[in-house]
Amino acid sequence: MTDAAISLRDLSKTYAGGKQALRGISLDVPRGQIFGLLGPNGAGKSTTINILAGMVNKTGGTAEIWGFDLDRDPRNAKASIGIVPQEILFDPFFTPFETLENQAGLYGVPKAKRRSDALLAAVHLTDKRDAYARSLSGGMKRRLLVAKAMVHSPPVLVLDEPTAGVDVELRQQLWAYVRELNQRGVTVVLTTHYLEEAEELCDRIAIINHGQVIANEPTRALVGMASEKVVEVTVDRDLTVPPAAPCFEKIELKGERTIVITYDKRRVNAGEVLAAVTEAGLGIVDVSTREADLEDVFLNLTRAAA
C-alpha cells in the first residue's frame, strides 16, 4: 500500500481537436494532509480533478487513489474519493436530507449506516433538512455539496473552488469543517483562487501551469522561495521624485512623504536599504515591512512558465 493518498504519474490529457490540457503531470498527495492544487485559469486543475472523479478519460499515464489504480480497480478507487465540484448541481425537487440519502444509496451505503442527519448538522444545515434544495442560498448549496461528497466516508476529499461566491462567515464555517475532517484523518485536496486561504490551510502546495507541474513544495518552503521584500518608509519632508539607489529593485511614491521600496533579499538587507534612504539626505520617521507571501511566489512562477 502506497503512502500517498493520490499518486499521479505522467498523467496526460488531449481533448478532441488537439487541445493538450495535461502534459505529463506527476505528483503525490501525502496521506493526512491538506494539499493545495493551484494554477491560473486553464492550467489543468479541473481536468485533473475530473479524471480522478471518473468524468474525463485520461490520454496517458496512471492515477492511483488510496493505492487503487483508476484503470485496474475503478470501483475501489472511486469509493475512496469524494468530489466537491465547482458547479452547483442539484435536483431542485429534493430536500437536503433526500439528496444525501439518494447519494448514499448510489454508493451502496446501507440505510442503517447512513449519516445524513449528522452530515447536515456538521455543515450547519439541520434547519434546512426538509426544505427544497432550490430554496437554499448559494452558500448553503456549497455546504450541502461538501456533505454530499462525504456520504460514503471517503478517506480523500477533493474541493474544487469550494468558496467561490461564499461570504466570509460561511467560508470560515466551511474551513472549520474541513479542518475538523482533516483532524479525523481525511486527506483534503483543495483548489482555490484565494491564495491567502491556501497559504493558511495547506500543508503542501503544487502549482500547475499549461498542464505541467511547476512547483510542488511544503507551503512554508514555497513562500520562502520569494526573493522580493518590500519596505515602506515615511520620511521627514515632502517628495516629488523618489530617491534612487543601486540596491532598490523598484521604488514608488505613496503620498507625499511615503516611499515604497522593493528589494532582493538575496542581495541586500533592510539595513542597507534604509542606509541608502538616509544617504539621499532624507530623515526616516517610520518604517514598515511586508514579507513575501504565496501570491508573490505564484505570480513569479506562473510568469516565468508563461
TrEMBL record:
SMART domains hit by this protein: AAA
Keyword field: ATP-binding, Nucleotide-binding, Transport
Residue intervals of the ABC transporter domain: 6-235
One matching Pfam family: ABC_tran
One GO MF term attached to the UniProt entry: ATP binding
PANTHER family registered for this protein in UniProt: ABC TRANSPORTER ATP-BINDING PROTEIN, ABC-TYPE MULTIDRUG TRANSPORT SYSTEM, ATPASE COMPONENT
Protein name: ABC-2 type transport system ATP-binding protein
Lineage summary: Bacteria, Pseudomonadati, Pseudomonadota, Alphaproteobacteria, Sphingomonadales
